[in-house]
Design goal:
Distance between the termini: 68 Å
CATH architecture: Roll
Helix content: under 10%
Radius of gyration: 15 Å
Protein name: SAF domain-containing protein
Order of helices and strands: EEEEEEEEE
Number of strands: 9
GO molecular function: lyase activity
Pfam families: SAF
InterPro entries: SAF (IPR013974), SAF_UxaA/GarD (IPR044144), UxaA_altronate/galactarate_dh (IPR052172)
Strand content: 25-35%
Domain SAF: 18-89
Oligomer: single chain
Strand order of the largest sheet: 1-2-5-8
Number of domains: 1
CATH topology: Archaeosine Trna-guanine Transglycosylase, Chain: A, domain 4
């Protein structure tokens, strides 16, 4: 009996609860990323090791990685968007805008 090959997985996803994946290589804006049966089109170029939204993430919703909340969305994040400090806040560190402290 032949086994079906698993679908190619571009971003690394470690848990079914994850709503982001980690790019295993640099990928250009407009490229299609495959995760199981899902596909997302990158909005911007993403570097290796950076996070990509796999599903819509609403403002205030947890950013899930490894099956745990690692941050919270500070605005709505579309599938294929780069997830970083410009649209999410860490649950583990306090990041201050040094300009606002002046």
């Amino acid at each position: 009996m032949a086994m079906d090959k698993p679908a190619r997985q571009d971003p690394l996803v470690t848990n079914d609860a994850d709503n982001i994946g980690v790019s295993k290589r640099s990928a250009a804006a407009g490229s299609i990323q495959q995760v199981g049966t899902r596909q997302v089109t990158l909005e911007t170029t993403v570097g290796m090791g950076h996070k990509v939204a796999l599903a819509p993430i609403r403002e205030g919703q947890d950013v899930m990685k490894y099956g745990f909340p690692i941050g919270v969305a500070t605005c709505d994040i579309a599938p294929g968007a780069h997830v970083h400090l410009h649209n999410s806040a860490s649950r583990y560190t306090v990041i201050r805008d040094r300009e606002s402290e002046k």
